[in-house]
Design goal:
- The protein is of the alpha+beta class and 828 residues long.
- The chain is built from 13 helices and 35 strands.
- The protein folds into 6 domains: 15-114, Ubiquitin-like (UB roll) (Roll); 117-193, membrane protein fhac (Ubiquitin-like (UB roll)); 199-283, Ubiquitin-like (UB roll), CATH 3.10.20; 289-369, membrane protein fhac (Ubiquitin-like (UB roll), Roll), CATH 3.10.20; 375-445, Roll (Ubiquitin-like (UB roll)), CATH 3.10.20.310; 493-499 and 509-782, Porin (Beta Barrel), CATH 2.40.160.
- The radius of gyration is 39 Å and the shape is globular.
């Protein structure tokens, strides 16, 4: 015991001496500090030496010492001053010396040495792209103080960057080099030894009896064994993703009733320097079943109603995912939480509690806290730098004074995404509840993205190159057109759409069109008014005075009104349109049935559509349906004229037809909410009123190719079908009936709003026929292939596809083979 006491006393004494030794007397002063007899002094002055870049006054303040302070020497205050300076991380050496002692005053000098600063840094052993990414991660800047912690943190961050990319053996070493031309400055050379990318050679399981090992491997989405056929999922080993995949295995077991399943051990061992082997041992445990489920605390809804929503039967295999989804959030909104929250119960919560496990059966109590119904108080919008508040507010389904509804919030986010003005991946909502008052403020967060588009292209039409220049302003403001301050660079923010387009190949062909859409006519209801005009002129290039001149001029005007419906639900729209085209021919013998004269196309169109997709650019869920009837008045039925003997000019003075079109498209998420299945079907039919006139040569269907055309003069409808040349799958003169079926699987490569990119694979089939009696829904031309889509805000959606046609073209034998297609725009 005595030895321990003496040792402790010795340690305390040594520590005290070390602290006292921080103060020394310099100069020629005869007064010496007696360390055995501490004395009290008044600080008479403090000088700072040894620093060049740091502020001396700041350093004095940081030390905690000041002129006039009382200080005991030796004493704790001096040690504390050194500690204060050291913890700033700015200095590599600190000494406090007494330069003079005069009576009861002591004059101190802070002798300091600054840490070196970073002048520049560079990388070795990495690519330029990796170096750029690392610069963003490590955040080194010129002038930063170099510390041991900075060096270690940087090495760790760089190494982690490559380990996360599958380079498990990556190492980083930083060389520190003095800057010869800048004292107290140093350069860092960050040397990276990546080594080979480590892949997974094998993945095996032990203890597995209820699943095939291959099924468990498929469950591990980011831990894949290397195979030559893996194009979109690499086999690199990443620790964090591997741990997440282990949780997915347990979730897989729990979904099948194995509630107690656990991973007993997992071993990752080296196969060679480029690969590892993984072995996972699982304890599956027994299979469980749901038994009794009781509801506690529910007053709004009866237990039988909640049982109906939960949809879990007694004796059903235990499924944790199904239970969570039925309680907290199903994709369809048919869950208990949505039931309450859609009726104002913002403060609602439900806690599933296992109250008893008997053998292989589990009893649950669903403990509910309903709370008060919340009333929406204030609605605010943040992030809209271009779009006016009123444009956003009119799409918001949550209104002040209404009961809170989660469904209304989800629907609002969908409507805001459909506008096309905002980044759909960054749409957010922040409810701010006030439980005491029973209210909630809702803040919607948006981030603007460019929505205007430019079309600049060249196409082939009538044996010549046709140039196109077009602009579309999707968020235009007509009311600010004459306000100079609003041109930044254009008046915008009111949600209107203005489109201008011109096509020409010089003196032979010119076409000009303009359209304008006001989506909320009058500002009160979502009634969309659309107006468009166009003029096209094609000649053989000769002057009007030349008798050999050939020309056709087409003028057109259309006016439409779209309305949102509330029945059967508010995803439905109806659109009414009246249009007029006037054709005037002068010695024009190409395409048309007569060379001199005119024709008029006055038609009325009714379209009923439903659109519930969640986003316009890359939809993941929802559907689109459209049914259109376009018809002209049946002029010939009001006349006693025998049209079987009439000239073509007489037959088509007023064009008559009825045109029926139907389209449907479904989007279904497949895996990880990334892969999306899109199934589409389209149908069109062109009919006539009078057998004497027969089928109209106008408004026919032309199937095949990319769906693009340089120009057309007969109102034809161009329909894309990949794997075959343009307009190749229809009879001469176009089809009067067609069908088309498509299955696509899409995978997003980038959802960045500045460049949304996704890859796709497709199966497609379709055909066009000249008469209804020839139509057969399964007599189709088949194709398969793949492609990519990229959405650029200034140019819209662009696509490149390769398709292989398995069938022959009309009039030929053998398979058509491969075709490349370039597409513009979203095709329904």
């Amino acid at each position: 015991m005595l030895r321990k006491y003496l040792l402790l006393t010795a340690l305390i004494f040594c520590s005290t001496v070390a602290a006292f030794a921080q103060v020394a007397v310099g100069g020629d002063d005869d007064n010496l500090i007696d360390y055995a007899n501490p004395k009290d002094y008044e600080i008479g002055g403090i000088t700072v030496t040894g620093v060049k870049f740091l502020d001396e006054n700041v350093l004095r303040t940081l030390s905690g010492l000041a002129v006039g302070d009382k200080v005991r020497v030796p004493g704790d205050k001096i040690s504390k001053a050194i500690e204060n300076l050291w913890k700033q991380g700015l200095l590599s050496d600190i000494k406090i010396v007494a330069t003079k002692i005069q009576d009861k005053k002591i004059f101190l000098e802070l002798r300091l040495q600054e840490r070196p600063r970073l002048s520049k840094f560079s990388f070795t052993g990495v690519s330029k792209s990796d170096a750029d990414k690392l610069r963003e991660k490590i955040k080194l800047v010129t002038g930063k103080i170099i510390t041991e912690n900075l060096i270690q943190t940087t090495e760790n961050e760089v190494t982690k960057h490559f380990v996360d990319k599958g380079f498990l053996n990556a190492k980083t070493k930083i060389d520190i080099i003095d800057e010869p031309k800048a004292p107290n400055n140093q350069m860092l050379v960050i040397n990276v030894m990546k080594g080979p990318r480590v892949k997974i050679n094998s993945l095996t399981f032990a203890g597995v009896t209820q699943f095939k090992e291959s099924k468990l491997r498929r469950t591990m989405k980011d831990t894949k064994v290397k195979h030559w056929y893996r194009l979109f999922s690499t086999s690199k080993f990443i620790e964090d993703l591997y741990e997440e995949d282990q949780l997915k295995i347990i979730a897989k077991y729990q979904d099948k009733g194995y509630r107690d399943a656990k991973i007993v051990s997992d071993t990752v061992y080296t196969h060679n320097e480029k690969s590892v082997d993984i072995r996972i041992t699982i304890d599956e445990g027994p299979r469980y079943y749901f038994r009794n489920i009781n509801w506690i605390g529910n007053t709004k809804y009866a237990a039988r109603d909640l049982d109906r929503v939960l949809n879990i039967k007694k004796g059903e295999v235990f499924n944790q995912a199904k239970l969570d989804e039925a309680l907290f959030g199903s994709q369809s909104g048919r869950d208990v939480t949505s039931l309450y929250m859609d009726n104002g119960y913002l403060f609602f919560s439900v806690t599933p509690v296992e109250v008893q496990v008997v053998g292989d059966s589990i009893d649950y109590e669903m403990r509910i806290y309903e709370g008060k119904q919340a009333i929406v108080n204030k609605i605010t919008i943040v992030g809209n730098t271009k779009t006016n508040d009123k444009v956003i507010m009119r799409e918001i389904r949550t209104k002040p004074g209404q009961l809170f509804s989660r469904n209304d919030i989800i629907r609002t986010q969908r409507e805001l995404a459909q506008l096309g003005y905002f980044d759909q991946e960054k749409l957010g909502v922040n409810p701010k509840p006030n439980p005491e008052e029973g209210t909630v403020d809702i803040e919607y967060v948006v981030e603007e993205r460019p929505s205007d588009q430019v079309e600049l292209s060249g196409g082939w039409g009538a044996g010549q190159i046709v140039g196109t220049l077009g602009v579309t302003f999707n968020n235009f403001s007509a009311r600010n057109f004459f306000k100079g301050a609003s041109w930044q660079p254009l008046p915008s923010g009111d949600g209107q759409r203005l489109s201008l387009r011109a096509q020409t190949n010089g003196k032979y062909y010119q076409s000009y069109s303009a359209s304008f859409t006001e989506p909320w006519l009058g500002g009160k209801k979502p009634n969309a008014l659309s107006v468009s005009v166009f003029r096209s002129v094609q000649t053989n290039g000769l002057k009007k005075s030349d008798d050999s001149r050939q020309a056709i001029a087409i003028n057109g005007l259309s006016v439409g009104l779209g309305q949102r419906l509330t029945v059967p639900d508010d995803y439905f729209n109806i659109y009414h349109e009246a249009s007029f085209q006037h054709y005037e021919l002068d010695n024009y013998s190409s395409t048309f049935l007569f060379s001199d004269g005119y024709a008029n196309n006055i038609s009325f169109q009714e379209t009923i559509s439903r659109n519930s997709v969640d986003a316009p650019i890359y939809p993941r869920i929802g559907s689109q349906f459209s049914f259109t009837l376009q018809l002209t008045p049946p002029y010939s039925l009001f006349s006693n004229k025998d049209y079987s003997t009439a000239t073509d000019q007489e037959k088509y003075k007023f064009i008559e037809y009825h045109k029926w079109k139907f389209g449907a498209s479904w989007f279904t998420p497949l895996a990880w909410n990334k892969l999306v299945l899109n199934v589409k079907a389209n149908f069109g039919f062109l009919g006539y009123y009078n057998k004497g006139i027969g089928q109209s040569p106008f408004e026919r269907f032309y199937l095949g190719g990319d769906g693009l055309s340089g120009f057309s003069l007969d109102g034809r409808e161009i329909i894309a079908q990949r794997g075959y040349p343009n307009n190749s799958l229809n009879p001469n003169g176009g089809g009067t009936i067609y069908d088309k079926y498509t299955i696509e699987v899409r995978y997003p490569l980038s959802l960045n709003p500045s460049a949304t990119i996704y890859a796709l694979g497709f199966l497609e089939a379709g055909n066009a026929f000249s008469r209804f009696r020839e139509y057969s829904p399964f007599n189709v031309k088949r194709a398969a292939g793949g492609g990519v889509r990229i959405f650029l805000p200034m140019f819209g959606l662009l696509g490149l596809d390769w398709g292989y046609g398995f069938d022959n073209l009309p009039g030929t034998t053998g398979k058509n083979g491969g075709e490349f297609h370039f597409t513009i725009g979203q095709q329904f």
